[in-house]
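Worked example

This section walks through a single chain of length 157. The input is the sequence exactly as stored; nothing has been trimmed or padded.
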Amino acid sequence: MSDIDEKDIHSFVDAVSAYFYQTTGEKAEIRSAYLVESGVSATTFELIGHISLSGSFSGRVYFSASRGMVRHLLLMMKELNHTEEHLLDTVGEVANTIAGNARQHFGDTMEISVPVVTATTHENWLNTVVSPRSYVILIKWKQYKASVVVDIQRIAK
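Given that input, the structure is written out below as tokens.
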């Protein structure tokens, strides 16, 4: 297994920026992108969607946001359904879109799963499990905060 590099992480930052701009017509602010070492957790918010990767990669890409942020995204998309199920579907779709956009950088050897979603009632901690060096990208859009956690490795062939 090998680590991904700064250029690889930048593809996720670009994917996050592209998602918000294409969906809302507004840029999201990338507040920071930082490395977390093995055993360190990343803060996540109330709604979490993740995509598992396979093929020449192993790991997961997580998108986490508050219910308020996801509701506001839905309003920007002129979507009036704000049920819990729809909020979860939306956070999963954001994770899927970010992973799919980043896949353009990595190529067809990166296979992505369908989204898996989780809801909590508060901020919690996500323990990364694949890479000894995972990356957290903190996002601010309007008054909301969100995070993308990139916990992936290349599989050496």
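What to look for: The longest strand covers residues 144-154.
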